[in-house]
């Protein structure tokens, strides 16, 4: 993919920490009294963007089982096809999260996503309900109260910190219920899939063309099975295992963290094998793995000074785990990541602390809460948050690097008496067939959505083909591959999938 899009998506990932988004709650004004769908979407110009971009607000039912009930609004954007005389239809896109902004995705990369479809689609993104510009989940009456609640909080790395975070998770769930109310029960992935089908109909497409990235693949799988026969083409990159995701918060979290350790090992292996001067962690008279293990042991014993952070501080073990979250997903940043780890191993963890602080800012925690709010409805927790010792241990056993991080971030809110029911959710079956195969794409070493998810999904769906990138990244486009680019466009335009078992090579290596 063209660099500008890749850079823009990296920025989204960094800002959200698990690919998340925050915002404001639905209000009575947002839940409008309209009783019928408009004849179509009323598009207007987008502030600050060229004429080829158009924006809109689209009302949909808060509860799809009550189509004449209260309404919320969805923020929608489209990039007009660059080859309108050969236009096929609309291509809907979702960047994942749960909770990332589809509006920002298209705003930042519309020109390049246009190329994914050969210039023959209007590229449409939307903020899913409960996020960003679409009646967002909110847990505090004001931003100031949100900042006060999260200020100085970090992922726990001691028993004392964990007990304090347990209490904070319970308080957070209570606050979310008080401020967002019944909205929390109507932001499931199935609700979003129903919104997507309404948008498809409003733009006049008889069948859906959809690109789902990361958690966006969950929206796609849900749509396929809720609305069989309505899909023209569906391409999913960075695949969520629908069964693991919806079974429970515990199975979802264990799956989420299960591949990061292997990818971190790949990072160290490539660093060790890189040419002299290519990786800062190498060349110290000891194996790279030994130097990194010593760094983690040092952080476990005591926080590491970070004198050049702003403000200066110290890096805890939890901060160190958090600082790996975005770099592992972005292989082309690995040389810089190696420099930051090497500096910390030498006693200056300033760069890693700065990275961890971005993730653990009040905005970052609020974004994680939005992600949890959606996933808690899709698959609730089976154990209370008071059982954190055994559950965090379980997640750490599944993935040492990120087990505690995602356990506290995404499992704990679900386990803390989350104030929502799950009557709107969809939990299978997942095998509805499509006339054209679904195209699944996955990097072989993906830390965010394990490769085995893609393999399981290929078997589970009624008609799917898996294209493998023999490389790294989440999703696969983080590292360019002309082979994947060609397969993507041929599928979206001509509905032709590569042969089963096709493996593409990347055009660039992390330390190349």
TrEMBL record:
Domain AB hydrolase-1: 92-245
PANTHER family assigned to the protein according to its UniProt record, in alphabetical order: 2-SUCCINYL-6-HYDROXY-2,4-CYCLOHEXADIENE-1-CARBOXYLATE SYNTHASE, TRIPEPTIDYL AMINOPEPTIDASE
The organism of origin for this protein: Catellatospora methionotrophica
Keyword list, A-Z: Hydrolase, Signal
Keyword Electron transport: no
Protein name: Hydrolase
Keyword Hydrolase (UniProt): yes
Entry GO MF terms: hydrolase activity
